[in-house]
Specification:
This protein has about 350 residues and is of the alpha+beta class. About 25% of the residues lie in helices and about 35% in strands. It is globular.
Length: about 350
């Protein structure tokens, strides 16, 4: 069983608190992502699970075994975990096979068993044909898969990954996202993955924990967090969004500084912040509840990225690529947001910081 139970874990370095009262259970076979900006505490949480850091308070269990508490501390090598770091950390003088076999040699695993387990790990990451090559003969993505195979070779209960794709170029990152997810699904292993990249988190996760300043802002499936953010920070961090001041009431939201409004069925009243995702706005010549001037348009192949001036506000619209030819810069257009989100007016980040599970 490879559940991870984290109970009221706080981590501080002197007077500086990195994580505050983190409590959660990561289920057996789940792909969990700890997401957030640099310095938010996500890597610190991973290192505490791994045993490289001790919690200031609280306890951590892997399966039914307490591995960290005020009275118990199990060292990393006894936690039955595999870990992949941001750097590949493969030994340049060893072949792929030797790199992957290294953890088993340290444990003095018998030769026949060692060979079978290395072959199994290499097959899992599709590197069997490169077993006798040196790392210098591999691409960056292949070297990262060597590190992944080395983490998997001991059949760990838990796989921890600390920003493993950040050193790869954009296309390699995209392909490796799908490879890691496919491997995790095939093996049924529990994964805790750390990243600041929201696309990685959305593509791979069963659940995301979005952390800022040591506090979990929101947790849930990618769909839940993207579609129902609990505060402006979550809405802004996960995906594209624009914020506009407005006034809600009588089934509509008036866009401040204009005479234009949008329908809204919620219970909000008074001053609000209107949040609109640009891919959820329909751009048309007429018929939308908002009208404005098309100030700029950018053809990106798969989409047309537009800027529309509505009163004193500049709205971003992600339209189909056909919009680039259909609309002229400077012409009047209408906008129909298919969904809007409202937050209390003047919601500062400090006011919105809270734990939501």
């Amino acid at each position: 069983m490879s559940t991870v139970s984290i109970r009221n874990v706080t981590k501080a370095f002197g007077d500086h608190t990195i994580l505050r009262e983190f409590s959660q259970v990561f289920g057996d076979g789940e792909f969990i992502t700890l997401l957030g900006p640099s310095g938010c505490g996500k890597t610190t949480m991973l290192r505490m699970i791994a045993g490289f850091e001790k919690p200031t308070s609280g306890e951590i269990l892997i399966g039914d075994r307490v591995v960290s508490s005020d009275r118990v501390f199990v060292p990393p090598e006894e936690r039955q975990i595999g870990m992949v770091f941001q750097s590949y950390a493969v030994w340049p003088h060893m072949t792929v096979r030797e790199n992957v076999a290294y953890p088993l040699r340290i444990r003095k695993v018998p030769k026949q068993q060692l060979r079978e387990e290395v072959d199994r790990a290499l097959s899992a990451v599709h590197l069997s044909q490169y077993a006798e090559r040196l790392p210098s003969q591999l691409s960056g993505g292949q070297q990262q898969r060597v590190a992944l195979a080395r983490a998997l070779v001991g059949q760990p209960k838990l796989l921890l990954l600390d920003e493993p794709l950040s050193n790869l170029d954009a296309k390699l990152r995209e392909s490796m996202r799908f490879e890691i997810k496919a491997i995790q699904t095939r093996l049924g292993i529990t994964v805790v993955y750390v990243t600041h990249d929201q696309t990685e988190a959305m593509a791979m996760s069963d659940r995301i924990f979005l952390i800022h300043r040591g506090i979990v802002q929101q947790s849930g499936t990618p769909e839940e967090i993207y579609n129902h953010p609990v505060n402006p920070f979550v809405a802004d961090f996960l995906g594209k969004v624009d914020f506009f001041p407005g006034t809600a009431g009588e089934g509509r939201v008036l866009l401040d500084g204009t005479d234009q409004s949008l329908p809204h069925a919620g219970a909000e009243r008074g001053k609000v912040e209107i949040a609109i995702r640009p891919e959820r706005i329909t751009l048309a010549a007429e018929g939308g509840p908002l009208r404005g001037t098309l100030e700029a348009k950018y053809y990106l192949g798969d989409v047309c990225d537009c800027r529309v001036r509505v009163g004193g506000h500049l709205m971003r619209v992600i339209a189909p690529p056909e919009a680039y030819a259909a609309f002229r810069q400077g012409e009047t257009v209408t906008l129909a947001p298919r969904e809007i989100m409202l937050f209390p007016a003047g919601s500062s980040l400090e006011e919105e910081l809270k734990i939501t599970t």
